[in-house]
Amino acid sequence: MPFILNTNTGLTGTPEEVQIYYQEVGEGNPVVLIHGWPLNLEMWEYQFNELPKHNIRVIAYDRRGFGKSSKPWEPYTYDAFAQDLKALLETLDLYNVTLVGFSMGGGEVARFLSKYNTEGRVTKAAFVSSVTPFLLKTDSNPDGVPQEQFDGMQQQLEDDRAHFLTGFAKQFYGVHLFNNPVSEERLQQDSALALQAAGYATIKAMQAWSTTDFRDDLTRIKVPTLVIHGKADETVPIDIAGEKTAAAIPQAKFVVFDDAPHGLVYTHKERFNEEIIRFINS
Predict the structure, then answer these.
(1) Does residue 103 carry a catalytic annotation?
(2) pLDDT at position 6 over 90
(3) Please, which residues have CB within 8 angstroms of residue 194's CB and are 6 or more apart in sequence?
(4) Is pLDDT above 70 for 116?
(5) What is the pTM of this model?
(6) Cβ neighbours of residue 24 under 8 Å, at least 6 residues apart?
(7) Which of 43, 10, 66, 123 is nearest to 112 (CA)?
(8) Which of 35, 69, 70, 103 is catalytic?
(9) Which among 63, 208, 211, 261 has the fewest CB atoms less than 10 Å away?
(10) What is the pLDDT of residues 48-82, one digit of tens each?
(11) What are residue 229's DSSP bridge partners?
(12) Whole-number pLDDT of residue 261
């Protein structure tokens, strides 16, 4: 079920038609699931399977450049991503919404709530393995990741995207020599989902999540908030992300999965689903 939205590129001053693909199932309290990089809405398969059993209307969409959505050359900024989310909520006329942003998707949640929730459509928010508040190492953020590390990722994506994504998927789930929490087939599935994105969109989206500062956005969040992060997350370490996100949002509930990697929505799907269902229906 696709819908059409108009956004402004910010370059020519003329609107560009972008098609965003979404799926929904179930009835009840609406939740919008925002996928992580470099996947698409299909990463939420095990939430689509379970949440509708609990009076929840589940909606997820492919970010621009990914999955079945349009793949424009630009823009791939969080202002553009948040505008796409705004259009989704308005098109479906959703209220009393819980936003759940995974990894890169946490940035959409933060930016939307700080800029676009003027109509009060969103009443709860969850940040899961989120890239917030700010990943890049700078003078004001000395605990962040050096720019050189992100430059290396970009070089690998430009040289051999398929090879890079295969290795990235293993880190995503905490796969090591003596730790194999997911099957080889699952890794292959994720690689296939990631390759549905445009190569340039994958790179530009990485540039967005690695360099965007959400610290001010988080201070403007006024809705009940849940922060979930895995202590064993090697992709977005908890000490520079989950802990700081929870500390920045007044009265946020912080739930730590002690042994969970970045991709905990799959490796710990039963516990994750329980936490999200409880939060949505509370």
Answers:
(1) yes
(2) no
(3) 38, 39, 165, 169, 202
(4) yes
(5) 0.95
(6) 1, 57, 58, 59, 60, 92
(7) 123
(8) 103
(9) 211
(10) 999 999 999 999 999 999 999 999 999 999 999 99
(11) 256
(12) 97
Which residue in the list 84, 190, 217, 233 is annotated as catalytic?
233
Strands 29-34 and 56-61: parallel
Residue 33: its H or E element: strand 29-34
Among 35, 229, 262, 268, the one annotated catalytic: 262
Q: Lowest-pLDDT range, 170-179, 194-203, 205-214?
A: 170-179
- 65: Cβ contacts below 8 Å, ≥ 6 apart: 71, 72, 76, 197, 198, 200, 201, 202, 204, 205
Asked if residue 8 has pLDDT above 80, the reply is no
pLDDT band at residue 146 using 50, 70 and 90 as cut-offs: very high
Q: Are 262 and 237 a contacting pair, CB within 8 Å?
A: no
Q: Residue 230 pairs with which residues in a beta bridge?
A: 257
Q: Give the separation between CA 254 and CA 247, rounded to whole angstroms.
A: 9
pLDDT tens-digit series, residues 170-188: 999 999 867 888 999 999 9
Does residue 13 carry a pLDDT above 60? Answer: no
Given a cut of 60, whether residue 28 has pLDDT beyond it is yes
Give the CA-trace dihedral at 114, 117, 122, 126, to 10 degrees: -10
The DSSP bridge partners found for residue 79 are none
CA-CA-CA-CA torsion sign (135, 235, 128, 225) = negative
Residue 268 annotated in active site? no
Q: What is the 3-state secondary structure (H, E, C) of 81-104?
A: HHHHHHHHHHHCCCCCEEEEEECC
Rounded-to-integer distance, Cα 60 and Cα 189, Å: 18
Q: In DSSP terms, which residues pair with 184 in a beta bridge? A: none
Mark whether 210 is an active-site residue.
no
The pLDDT value given to residue 54: 98
